[in-house]
Structure prediction request, 528 residues.
Amino acid sequence: MCKRTWEGFVRCIMQPLVEVQNVTFGYGAVPVLEEISLHLHPGQFAAIVGPSGAGKTSLLKLLLGVLRAGQGSVRIGGRVLDGRPSSSVAYVPQIETVDWNFPVTAEQVVLMGRASRAGLWPWPSRAERRQAHALLDQLGIGEFGARHIRDLSGGQQQRVFLARALIAEPELLVLDEPTSGVDMRTAENILHLLADLNQRGMTILMTTHDLNAAAAHLPWVICLRNRVIAQGAPEAVFTPAILQRTYDGEFVVLREGGMLYVQQKPHGHAWRDVVADPVLGHVAPLESAGLMMEVQDDILARTVPV
Amino acid sequence: MSWNFYIGAGIWGFLTAVLINQTTRRTRIGADAAIGVITTASFAVGVVLISRYRRFTQSIDAALFGNILGVKQQDVLVVAGVTLLVGALIFFAYKQLLFTTFDSDVAQVYGVRTEWVDTLFALALAAALIASMQILGVTLIAAALVVPAITARLLTDSFHRMVAYSMAIGAFCGLVGMYLSYAFDAASGATIVLTQSALFCIALIISTLQKRAAQRLAHTHV
Prediction:
């Protein structure tokens, strides 16, 4: 953490929390990540986007200390990760990977976040339980602590795992596709919650496949396809050229009313056939090659692919 | 059984458990397949040794099917010692065991030394198996280990309560099974496992009825 001296403050601002330098990593002979260099400063909120197999999860695992880089180095808070995880990083896995039949309540899951720091007794201390309840309350699921995790909704489950990460008091929060497997409204709520945490100083790195949500909520995105293709603000990074290099597909990017809207062109259709109205919602049905889409001509006339 | 048996079986059991654990971790083979291959191969080694040196026949019968009348003072001492050790392990490593069992990969990220936890668990499991071999026999031990836990699982959604319930169920069935074995002059291991199975059936009926009642209640509220 930043020391409350001028020197400490300057060092904190200058020194990145996450430093990935020229990292190359692969499973066997096939490299998954090549010459990756990244920096995340304290207080940043960033998303890694890229197609399946681009190396997003491998990069997260390198940052978590679960995998070891073949070449290059990964530092968290200035310390090189040498195959051991950093205590200043907490992780929220994809909820699809959770064993929902495991006999565990929401409160017990949250308290797992203290497993490595706990004392010798098998039960949590009063302070730990108070902290767990406070976090569940803070995340709006205070009344569900005694419930089995399977009996919660997707959004509530995601909040339980977020509370488990927060009870570990991390400096960096890493989330693997926190918006997958939940409905659109829940995904919005989760991203708002993360933005709130970031406002309070938490450094956050997540992966996502939802480019529009990333454009709407995240100030920094990293396009990854085995290499870092581009990184920066979504307005600068989400361009058809960069997205083409990242996903190997054609994209349309619309800007309207301060919003950014990304849509992949389906094969065999003109882009104007499939771009939905991002703002007005006043649309007329259009039938094109069997594809029912809604589009408004005046919007199309005003919006041009970036 | 003799101390030589406990030492030999202890080393073999621990190595087998570690081998299963490492095979699961380092290869693409799942735990169920690794257990199937390694325990069967281990059993086959035993059968080959028996067929080669036939003088073991009597003690092997006891090892396979259990023989309560053959329990000596040293066997009771071994059971007591193993109970204390396993109890201590569960007590002091409870949080790490819980997190590793729930999600080993994530537990590692949170600083839990999952390899150590797995190895200690393998050691405890091997010790528990060997200590109860004289009473239950190899063929029934798996059931005796698993049935109390799954019966408890049917009764609660909390891991803490599940641990407490499964210990209570195990102890209760051991006591009742032993008494029934004496009363009906039946094999002790088999009677204990049958008692556990009866309790499992009762728990299954209760949990199914509870689930149906809850579903009916949810429907009436809708």
User: Anything to note?
Assistant: Chain A touches chain B through 30 residues (CB under 8 Å). DSSP finds ten helices and 14 strands in chain A. Chain A has three domains: 1-86+170-249, 89-169, 251-306.
